[in-house]
Amino acid sequence: MTIDVSDFSAYPHRHLLGIEGLFPHEISFLLDRSESYVDQNRQADKKKSTLRGRTIINLFFENSTRTRTSFELAGKRLGADVINMSVATSAIKKGETLIDTAMTLNAMHPDVLVVRHPDSGAAKLLSEKVNCAVISGGDGRHEHPTQALLDALTIRRRRGDLAGLQVAICGDVLHSRVARSNIHLLNTMGARVRLIAPRTLIPDSIERMGVEVFYDMKEGLQDCDIVMMLRLQKERMQTSFFPSVREYFHFFGLDYEKLSVTKPDALIMHPGPMNRGVEIDSEVADDYGRSVIREQVEMGVAVRMACLEVLGLPREIDDSTVRNL
Ligand code: NCD
CA 323 to CA 13: how far, in whole Å? Predict the structure, then answer.
């Protein structure tokens, strides 16, 4: 299927709440559109007026550095007005609910609401209440669609295609929305996904998502093209999931020894923020011959520009075919 990157009706959805359910050509369209911004972002003049007059609100109920700043930068580079609202300054502290906050913001006529929330499903709930487009910047353990898109763009630029690649996602899968969005995207685009983690950090019945599960790094990493490391999300752990950080690093931290079984040119990825010496050895993380962690951050801005542009401008949306994304 040939994709016309200037035809925004190629993405016929009002929102971007997750990757699950998107068709391969819809994902390719967003990636192709993002691609056009990579070069522009490397030039001295990075500003366009595509979204001039539009208002984007970043509504963040959880801490974030790269996701929030890259959405902000993306919006500004497209000429939009961007407002950041974080939980610490919002009325949430005074007992106002998610919906009340959303309705208050909705009354200000934003064009796009980017939302990050600790509860799975929060972005969807919000999308049902407001009149504007909603982009999820991560909801609980559910999905983090723009992270999967930026990961895919990074891989595609290095490898040309996602189809046929063997990708290992390693570490705290249980608490990771990044893992879930990546599994959906990679499977949809024809890559094969392995998960590698201690038993306690693998969700029950995850095989149903079409992945292979390994509990040993060297077994799982064998001949992989891509190694995606996940942060150990201690803030989401109420109980102890492993004996000690030292032991975790010994068995599941990515170091040169464990990397020796992958394809020699395997790419190393991490969504950030990294716990150096916990899930990844510092030297491996900074090995820019193989680690594309900085590139992921760069691609994040391009991907968010594409998503804001596509969702922030009027498009043909046929409500009878819109899936519940
Ligand atoms: C991820 C997130 O918030 O889910 N980070 C990010 O968006 N860059 C992963 C993480 O926090 O570990």
Answer: 7
Residue 65 CA: nearest ligand 1 atom is 8
Q: How far is CA 50 from CA 38, 39, 72, in A?
A: 16, 17, 15
The per-residue pLDDT string of the chain (325 residues; one tens digit each, 9 = 90 and over) reads 667 878 888 999 999 999 999 999 999 999 999 999 999 999 999 999 999 999 999 999 998 999 999 999 999 999 999 999 986 655 555 556 788 888 899 999 999 999 999 999 999 999 999 999 999 999 999 999 999 999 999 999 999 999 999 999 999 999 999 999 999 999 999 999 999 999 999 999 999 999 999 999 999 999 999 999 999 988 878 777 787 889 999 999 999 999 999 999 999 999 999 999 999 999 999 999 999 999 999 999 999 999 999 999 988 776 655 555 5
* SS percent in the chain: helix, strand, coil, step 5: 40, 15, 45
Q: What is the pTM of this model?
A: 0.95
29 with 1: CB under 8 angstroms?
no
Pocket test for ligand 1, best of 141, 144, 233 (most atoms within 8 A of CB): 144
Ligand 1 test: best mutation among 58, 63, 67, 301, most atoms within 8 Å of CB? 67
Which atom of ligand 1 is the closest one to the Cα of 172? 12
Distance 320 CA to ligand 1 centre (A): 34
